[in-house]
Amino acid sequence: MKTKSLYLTLFCLLPFTAAAQTADYIVDRVLAARGGLDKIRAIQAERVSGHISFGADAEGPFVVELKRPRKMHMEFTIQGGTMVRVYDGKSAGWTINPFAGKNNPEPMPEEELRNISEESDFDGPLVDYRAKGSQIELVGKDKVEGKETFRLKLTTKNGDVRFYLFDSETFLLLKWEGKRKFKDEEVPVESFFRDYHDVGGLQFAFEIDSGASAEEINQKILIDKIELDPEISESRFIKPPPVRETRPADPPAAPSPSSSPPATDPVPD
Q: Pick the residue with more confidence: 30 or 180?
């Protein structure tokens, strides 16, 4: 009788356990694992610094500054050339890309503006996702580097589809899958998130590897420091001033605008 009662008890629990694993249940657990909505929403600005590598001969420091609402200033320097991307948080953005022979600020094209408006959302795509016009589905389980994960499918209001794979035990992001436009073509991109650290009660991945697949990683990000609510001048988010014409010796291949280092979970994007 005791054994039978145990089976009956477990049987009664199974439907509730299965029902709990909905997309919203996973989203709630993910946001709690990051540190909770209150802490996420309380942050007004971030500064992320570290090193980015596009290969053995193309490595250098980067700094990303973000400020509500959706303002962003990013710089990275490789072989004497510094790429700059700036977004005013509303509708305008500029780039300085010496690797493409563009040493003075130029307006961002519409496609890049759409990307950077998502990159600059340091809350991440899951916070208030319905208000942002996105839809989320739990499409099953998967494995990432030997760890069981929940796979969430996010469809943005523009129809773009991304997949987020979260550790089924810690609920931290382990992998992002999506597509980025490069040279008028959409190419698949995967990003792997590792080495999480607590910063001000929030969890951040300090190592992010991206590429067309796990075997074709062509961008590595190592974060050295994350500052929460630093003082950031509003001047950082206006059109950058012109710079003197310079031409770095043997520059690396021009990185795509969407290859810039994400400040937080791509959200990655």
A: 30
3-state secondary structure 61-115: EEEEEEECCCEEEEEEEECCEEEEEEECCCCCEEEEEHHHCEEEEEECCHHHHHH
**pLDDT tens per residue across span 147-166:** 999 999 999 998 999 999 99
In this structure, what token pair is assigned to residue 246?
């310079």
Q: How far apart are CA 213 and CA 264, in angstroms?
A: 21
CB atoms within 10 A of CB 53: 17
How many domains are contained in the chain?
1
Domain of 29, CATH number, reads 2.50.20.10
Residue 29 lies in a domain: yes
Does the residue 175 lie in any domain? Answer: yes
Pairing of strands 202-211, 217-228: antiparallel
Average model confidence (pLDDT) across the chain: 85
Give per-residue burial for 123-149: e unless 16+ CB within 10 Å, then b.
Answer: bbbbbebeeeebebebeeebebeebeb
Q: Which residues contact 132 (CB under 8 A, 6 or more apart)?
A: 125, 156, 157
**Radius of gyration over every alpha carbon of the chain, rounded to an integer in angstroms:** 20
Range of the domain at 57: 2-259
